[in-house]
Amino acid sequence: MAKKVVASLQKGGGKNHSKVIKMVRSPKTGAYSFKEEIVLNEKVKDWLSSN
Questions:
Q1: Whole-structure pTM value
Q2: How many domains does the structure of the chain reveal?
Q3: By the 8 A CB rule, do 51 and 35 touch?
Q4: Over the stretch 1-45, which tens digit does the pLDDT of each residue have?
Q5: Which of 3, 34, 40, 50 is most deeply buried (CB count within 10 A of its CB)?
Q6: Domain boundaries, position 27
Q7: Cα(48)–Cα(20) distance, rounded to whole angstroms?
Q8: Distances (CA, A) of 10 to 3, 5, 14, 32, 51
Q9: Phi first, then psi: what are they for 31, rounded to 5°?
Q10: H-assigned helices in 1-51
Q11: Cβ distance 39 to 47 under 8 Å?
């Protein structure tokens, strides 16, 4: 699935976007989960620090 997203971003006007994946630990169970989103290249650091 990730390959389709990346390929479609490279074709169109998505060159200024990146798919960002962050590992987040649940405070309740202690298990890890992943959050992923497509954000602008300028906003990557903000997204990683805020979520």
A1: 0.59
A2: 1
A3: yes
A4: 556 666 665 666 667 888 999 999 999 999 999 999 998 899 889
A5: 40
A6: 2-50
A7: 8
A8: 11, 9, 6, 30, 26
A9: -80, 150
A10: 2-11, 44-50
A11: yes
